[in-house]
Design a protein that fits this description.
Blueprint: H1 2-32, H2 43-98, H3 103-124, E1 127-128, E2 131-132, E3 144-148, E4 155-160, E5 169-170, E6 176-177, H4 183-205, H5 208-261, H6 265-290, H7 294-298
Antiparallel strand pairs: 1-2, 3-4, 5-6
Helix pairs in contact: 1-6, 2-3, 2-4, 2-5, 3-4, 4-5
Length: about 300
């Protein structure tokens, strides 16, 4: 009788220990909301979670890239919009100067255009986060340089010393975008400033024919600026759509990770109740087995 009794006692104790461990595990799951605490709890699930977390990290980087690209595009758009406003006023002055105007009016228009030239050069050399916006990839130096009159200090010509390259920013594993201005836009800005110089000089000379010529040239520059603004509007829309897609993708991954590691609280509470009942029953059985008298044990 001794061996069977010992075996029964040991079996009950092992069962109690298992139930106690399971009960403690379920209590921890309810307290933390998690059902996996160490890789050995579910190696397969941990492998899937690690893969999804790596993908989530990539999405977060793409999101940061998109935010940077959007800021660059918005800053470029603002700079181009400022130049477009200058172009609008220059067009008005060219129209007025093409007609009959007094010498005083010509001088007043010329003085205003001279200020527009200075403002245009300043806008063309706009910086964003200390990088020049309209410089292609040569972002460390001012892309537009001016030649000035030794006598008046006025700008007589403007040159573009940037390049025609564009920096590309990765938005996803398969997509990238160039949020800056194109080389054609940058050289077009140079031409626009030089057309303003020609307009000012024509106004200074009181030459209505030359003013009319610059007006037609300014119309071409205005079209270029409008097209560039439209392009950046489309770029910003594309970036915003990509951000929404990546956000949805990230939310989906978060849900998949949650499905792998989060505890189903209603189900876990039910399982804890069942385990607690089994644990109490095992304790009751153990009490009966282990309460054998010495006489019973020796039979």
């Amino acid at each position: 009788m001794r061996v069977p009794t010992n075996n029964a006692s040991e079996s009950v104790i092992v069962q109690i220990q298992k139930l106690a461990s399971r009960q403690a595990q379920l209590q921890q799951q309810i307290a933390t909301g998690q059902r996996i605490f160490v890789p050995s709890d579910n190696p397969a699930a941990i492998g899937r979670v690690l893969t999804m977390e790596n993908e989530r990290s990539q999405i977060q980087q793409f999101d940061r890239n998109a935010a940077t690209a959007l800021e660059i595009s918005q800053a470029s758009f603002a700079g181009l919009k400022g130049l477009k406003e200058i172009s609008d006023r220059a067009g008005e002055i060219a129209t007025l100067g093409s007609g009959i105007a007094s010498p005083d009016a010509y001088r007043a228009y010329a003085s205003e255009v001279n200020q527009l030239i200075e403002q245009s050069l300043q806008s063309a050399n706009t910086r964003f986060r200390n990088d020049y916006l309209f410089a292609g990839t040569a972002i460390d130096a001012a892309p537009f340089t001016a030649t000035r009159s030794l006598t008046t200090g006025q700008i007589t010509a403007t040159a573009y010393v940037g390049n025609a390259n564009q920096s590309s920013i990765q938005l996803s594993e398969t997509a990238s975008i160039a949020p800056g201005t194109t080389g054609a836009t940058n050289t077009g800005v140079r031409d626009f400033i030089n057309q303003l110089v020609a307009l000012r000089d024509a106004l200074v000379a009181g030459d209505s024919t030359a003013v009319a010529t610059t007006r037609s040239q300014l119309e071409g520059s205005e079209n270029l600026l409008v097209n560039a603004l439209s392009e950046h509007g489309a770029i910003e829309l594309r970036i915003e759509v990509n951000q929404a897609q990546q956000q949805a993708r990230g939310d989906n991954l978060d849900q998949l990770v949650s499905n792998e590691v989060d505890a189903d609280l209603p189900e876990t509470v039910v399982r804890l109740g069942q385990t607690s009942t089994a644990y109490e029953a095992a304790l009751s059985s153990a009490t009966k087995i282990l309460q054998m008298s010495l006489l019973d044990y020796l039979r």
